[in-house]
Design a protein that fits this description.
Layout (H helix, E strand, L loop, with lengths): L8 H7 L5 H6 L26 H59 L21 H6 L6 H27 L20 H6 L14 H8 L11 H20 L2 H7 L2 H12 L5 E8 L6 H8 L10 E10 L13 E19 L10 E15 L7 E6 L4
Antiparallel strand pairs: 1-3, 2-3, 3-4, 4-5
Helix pairs in contact: 8-9, 9-10
Length: about 400
């Protein structure tokens, strides 16, 4: 008969030390190797294995970066459009304000008939010294093709502006007319018969533009004939040039005020004031220019090759700056600027009051080339004046 074996379970259980509830609560939890379960995937995306997680994260980051770039480019485009719209609105408002200001200025002459709203501080129009193409081609080293092309385009643009200015002056009949009353003080005054023979048929009408003869006159700024449209302006320019040189030498500020304007008036006045009051200046122009009226007329309109004219108009600009509704009481609406090239032989001698020469200041006869801008305001009863000196770029 089998015997029963009693296992010491109860004994072993009873032999365990008793623990209180507080001790069990404060005991550390056993460490577990299981990690927390990953968050559940969204229902729209299927669950993938753990090996595809880096690829998924990189693709999602690139997608988000592309999305950010798209948003940034869209916002930049919107900002550009907004800035362009603001610039257009600002330009439109500025143009409207300027037009309103011009309209107000056009009505002001009715309220203030003695006030000149248009002849204030004027800027020099865009007269230009033409480029010497022949001198460029002869220079060493030879200029590049781009430099030659730039000089040609520069001269062509100047010619186009000259032709249009000639047309404007012809329409307004604003070319200077020869003086019918000869004056003994002026070496360039003409008799009445000469002045009648050189009067051009103005004002120019639109139908006359189809005449080749008119086009030859309009496009030929440096016409060297005595009856050219600008012949009298060349005479006036030479007279003004000689009178300014004489007034500067004699310190005649009254004559300078009537012969100059703008920046040139300030320049020559300052030149006179800084001179030594105890010195006497003798300024001379040599050659045919100083040999009387007939010699000067011959020098101005010489047809001899290789002999430069003492006064040559190289650039001409005309603009309608009198914008009132009514015509001016005298003259025309134009402001005319002519750039004249003066080429003369000059000398300067300085003496003391005891008629002793100063060898340090004596200048022997030498060739002088100057570019001066002559100005005529059409609605003023005033002569041509020199307003600025322009220098040739090196």
């Amino acid at each position: 008969m089998a015997t029963r074996v009693r296992l010491p379970i109860a004994r072993s259980c009873t032999s365990l030390p008793a623990r209180s509830f507080s001790a069990l609560k404060s005991a550390p939890k056993p460490s577990s190797t299981r990690s927390s379960p990953p968050p559940p995937h969204p229902p729209s995306s299927p669950k993938t294995s753990s090996t595809s997680k880096p690829a998924l994260s990189s693709s999602s980051s690139s997608a988000s970066s592309l999305k950010g770039l798209g948003l940034s480019s869209a916002s930049a485009t919107k900002d550009k459009k907004a800035s362009k719209a603001k610039a257009k609105a600002a330009a439109k408002s500025q143009t409207e304000q300027q037009l309103k200001q011009i309209e107000n200025m056009m009505t002001l002459p009715h309220m203030y008939p003695t006030m000149d709203m248009w002849g204030g501080k004027l800027t020099t129009l865009d007269v230009e010294i033409p480029r010497d193409i022949r001198a460029m081609l002869k220079a060493q080293p030879r200029p590049s093709l781009s430099a030659v092309w730039g000089a040609l385009s520069h001269n062509f643009n100047n010619w186009v502006k000259n032709t249009y200015s000639m047309y404007q002056i012809a329409r307004a009949s604003a070319f200077p007319r020869p003086d019918p009353s000869p004056s003994s003080s002026s070496p360039l005054s003409q008799s009445s018969s000469e002045s009648q023979s050189t009067l051009p048929p103005f004002p120019l009408r639109t139908r006359q533009l189809f005449s080749p003869r008119i086009w030859r006159r309009l496009g030929n700024l440096q016409n060297n004939r005595p009856d050219a449209w600008l012949a009298q302006l060349r005479r006036i320019a030479m007279r003004v040039y000689l009178d300014i040189g004489k007034a500067v030498a004699e310190k005649d500020t009254t004559a300078l005020r009537s012969l100059t304007s703008g920046a040139h008036a300030s320049k020559v006045t300052k030149l006179v004031r800084v001179r030594d009051p105890g010195s006497v200046y003798h300024w001379r122009v040599h050659g045919t220019v100083s040999e009387g009226k007939a010699a000067l007329e011959k020098a101005l309109f010489s047809t001899e090759k290789g002999v430069p004219s003492p006064a040559t108009i190289v650039s001409l600009r005309a603009a309608e700056l009198y914008l009132a509704k009514e015509e001016p009481k005298r003259g025309n609406r134009l402001v005319i600027h002519a750039l004249v090239r003066f080429e003369t032989t000059q000398s300067l001698e300085v003496f003391t009051k005891n008629n002793r020469s100063s060898p340090d200041v004596v200048s022997p006869p030498h060739r002088m080339v100057e570019y001066l801008v002559l100005e005529k305001i059409g609605w003023y009863d005033a002569d041509w004046t020199v307003r600025e000196q322009v220098y040739e770029s090196v």
